[in-house]
From TrEMBL:
It comes from Desulfamplus magnetovallimortis. The chain crosses the membrane at residues 6-28, 40-65, 71-91, 112-138, 144-169. This is Lysine exporter protein (LYSE/YGGA). The keyword Disulfide bond does not apply. Its main location: membrane.
Length: 208
């Protein structure tokens, strides 16, 4: 693979990753609520979710989803309903004074990891994306495996950095919501954002 093509791939991947979607909305919401301890579980879930989506795509599921309306709808609604569940829970959260400061409202790293993994891995557009995106940078005159490892590994590394930076940025907002009233307001905004992401996911249409 030429250096020029690889640089183009990095640039295109950067543009794709930095635009917030359902996964990043979830990461920001959870990181603000749960602080720095949530950063690595959330980022790890995003990376494993992307790896799962990429692997399924390379195994042919992405191509099947592009032609199977039933499979596309199944993935779409599972992801949308899970986002809706998380959004409603966050909206209904009723923080008590001092929870943010003293960490009384804890959530396990496994739960954080699971939430970001499920939302990332079950995004039908994510699976279809790898089918449409990666092949454009494959040189069929060169060994396929080495190119897939390079491109896939680069994407996953950049996804890790992107999710981590978003989560770290979100934890800085945590200092501004220590008051119960402000934290409750944020929970409503974060819950609404997740519900909006759920509606967006539910409205996705299969590519023709």
């Amino acid at each position: 693979m030429s250096l020029e093509l690889y640089i183009t791939y990095i640039f295109a991947t950067t543009l794709i990753l930095v635009i917030p979607g359902p996964t990043i909305i979830l990461v920001i919401s959870q990181a603000v609520n749960h602080g720095r301890k949530s950063v690595m579980p959330l980022a790890a879930g995003v990376v494993l979710g992307d790896f799962t989506a990429m692997t399924l795509s390379l195994l042919g599921l992405g191509a099947i989803m592009s032609t199977s309306a039933t499979l596309f709808i199944l993935f779409k609604w599972i992801g949308a309903l899970y986002l809706l569940y998380l959004g409603i829970n966050m909206w209904r959260a009723n923080p008590k004074s001092g929870e943010i400061q003293h960490g009384k409202k804890e959530i396990s790293p496994l739960s954080l990891f699971k939430s970001s993994f499920i939302v990332t891995a079950l995004n039908p557009k994510g699976i279809a994306f790898f089918v449409a995106f990666l092949p454009q940078f494959i040189n069929h005159n060169e060994p396929l495996l080495s190119q897939l490892l390079l491109l896939g590994g680069t994407f996953l590394f950049m996804a890790l950095v992107n999710a981590t930076l978003y989560a770290l940025f979100a934890t800085q907002l945590r200092k501004s919501i220590e008051k119960t009233s402000v934290n409750k307001w944020f929970n409503r905004c974060g819950g609404a954002a997740l519900i909006g992401a759920s509606l967006f996911t539910a409205s996705m249409q299969r590519s023709a």
